[in-house]
């Protein structure tokens, strides 16, 4: 599906219009859908005429059972109020410290030991599975102060995580059906609608218990720095609202997206070249135009957790790549999955090898020795 849309975009110069059901009378009634990856159009939609492009009633109806009127699923004043409240929290340093704490804990206590084990056994790991579990644990820690430890040896099944994934998958299914059809199935409570109902009920029970416990702990004078506790301390929100705050953040924290058009990135758009983000002399990081790189959205609805996500990614990359070399397992096929956020259908199977730390240490020693050997007059001149 993603590949098909990308092909259509390539064939149509980056923008095209289509309809959901190609029956002329129906198409006219439903209206056309515009698909675009042109940075100028994205700027127009996401920023210049932001008010003209709300998520709208279709999106709202599809997500209502899962996300309620949370930040992800609201427009206008309901969205603005939540955005302002949440944006205030995201500017505080405590949230960055909290993310750093959760991510370091899961890297050192669980991810690294699991990679070490795979490397000793010359085994294969599904890196996507490990990282999805890690980010899920982190976002639960950050959102409501409870790490469900889904990243653990043997990859145990976690009922809350499973219910959450099922609920998002069943919600996505609504997009493929005409609204009347999924509403009818919801009314009969059959198929994916039955799954959605059960999964949402499970997630709601879990979060409701977390909120009750947290309220008691706060009344007891305990100190918590998670997002939910900050909203509770403000004292004015209903339990349903708090539940949706937590849920919307969990969905937000699992987001992944990508872009790959020649018209945007040049002929080598499919190559992994992180140096695109470096200045021509290769020394400085340079921000890309946010309408070219929209993985975090752009404009007034830009991802609030972007900096936290970078903190998390850099912490993981540094800790893992210092210790290991990773190679995609032979014959492993990387294909996209049809899902709400971008996943690989068969995961990312990788072989893990230990990195030769002795050679790194001796390189470092050499650099230090040559720095120490710089003549005193050169150091003085430099100062
Ligand atoms: C690599 C990781 C991430 C990516 C690629 C990403 C991407 C995005 C995207 C594309 C949106 C816009 C979604 C939409 O409007 O439909 C978004 C919104 C949002 N993200 Fe992220 N996100 C990431 C991580 C996080 C994290 C870790 C947090 C929280 C700690 C977070 C919090 C939010 C929030 C609150 C919104 C809603 C903003 C609004 O509607 O005003 N994100 N993110």
TrEMBL record:
<dbReference type="Pfam" id="PF00067">
    <property type="entry name" value="p450"/>
</dbReference>
<keyword id="KW-0560">Oxidoreductase</keyword>
<keyword id="KW-0408">Iron</keyword>
<keyword id="KW-0503">Monooxygenase</keyword>
<comment type="similarity">
    <text>Belongs to the cytochrome P450 family.</text>
</comment>
<dbReference type="GO" id="GO:0016705">
    <property type="term" value="F:oxidoreductase activity, acting on paired donors, with incorporation or reduction of molecular oxygen"/>
</dbReference>
<protein>
    <submittedName>
        <fullName>Cytochrome P450</fullName>
    </submittedName>
</protein>
<dbReference type="GO" id="GO:0004497">
    <property type="term" value="F:monooxygenase activity"/>
</dbReference>
<dbReference type="InterPro" id="IPR001128">
    <property type="entry name" value="Cyt_P450"/>
</dbReference>
<dbReference type="InterPro" id="IPR017972">
    <property type="entry name" value="Cyt_P450_CS"/>
</dbReference>
<dbReference type="GO" id="GO:0006629">
    <property type="term" value="P:lipid metabolic process"/>
</dbReference>
<dbReference type="GO" id="GO:0005506">
    <property type="term" value="F:iron ion binding"/>
</dbReference>
<dbReference type="InterPro" id="IPR036396">
    <property type="entry name" value="Cyt_P450_sf"/>
</dbReference>
<dbReference type="GO" id="GO:0020037">
    <property type="term" value="F:heme binding"/>
</dbReference>
<keyword id="KW-0349">Heme</keyword>
<keyword id="KW-0479">Metal-binding</keyword>
């Amino acid at each position: 599906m993603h590949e098909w849309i990308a092909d259509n975009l390539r064939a149509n110069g980056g923008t095209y219009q289509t309809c959901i059901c190609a029956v002329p009378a129906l198409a006219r009634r439903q209206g056309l859908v515009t698909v675009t990856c042109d940075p100028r159009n994205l700027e127009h939609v996401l920023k210049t005429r932001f008010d003209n492009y709300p998520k709208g009633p279709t999106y709202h109806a599809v997500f209502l059972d899962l996300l309620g009127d949370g930040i992800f699923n609201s427009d206008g004043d309901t969205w603005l109020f939540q955005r302002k409240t949440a944006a205030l929290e995201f500017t505080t340093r405590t949230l960055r410290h909290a993310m750093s704490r959760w991510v370091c804990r899961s890297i050192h206590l669980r991810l690294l030991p699991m990679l070490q084990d795979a490397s000793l056994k010359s085994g294969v790991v599904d890196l996507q599975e490990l990282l999805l579990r890690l980010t899920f644990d982190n976002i639960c820690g950050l959102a409501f102060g409870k790490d469900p430890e889904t990243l653990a040896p043997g990859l145990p099944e976690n009922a809350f995580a499973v219910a959450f994934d099922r609920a998002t998958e069943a919600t996505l299914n609504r997009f493929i059906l005409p609204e009347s059809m999924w509403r009818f199935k919801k009314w009969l409570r059959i198929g994916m609608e039955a799954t959605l109902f059960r999964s949402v009920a499970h997630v709601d029970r879990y979060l409701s218990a977390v909120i009750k416990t947290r309220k008691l702990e706060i009344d007891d004078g305990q100190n918590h720095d998670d997002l939910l506790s900050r909203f509770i301390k403000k004292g004015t929100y209903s339990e349903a609202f708090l539940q949706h705050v937590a849920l919307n953040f969990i969905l937000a924290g699992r987001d992944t997206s990508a872009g790959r058009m020649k018209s945007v990135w040049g002929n080598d758009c499919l190559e992994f070249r992180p140096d695109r983000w470096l200045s021509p002399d290769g020394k400085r990081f340079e921000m890309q135009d946010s309408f070219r790189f929209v993985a975090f959205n752009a404009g007034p609805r830009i991802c609030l957790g972007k900096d936290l996500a970078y903190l998390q990614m850099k912490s993981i990359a540094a800790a893992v790549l210092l210790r290991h070399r990773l190679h995609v397992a032979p014959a492993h096929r990387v294909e996209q999955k049809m899902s709400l956020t971008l996943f690989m259908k068969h995961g990312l199977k990788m072989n893990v090898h230990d990195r030769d730390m002795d050679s790194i240490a001796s390189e470092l020693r050499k650099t230090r020795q040559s720095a120490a050997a710089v003549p005193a007059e050169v150091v003085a001149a430099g100062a």
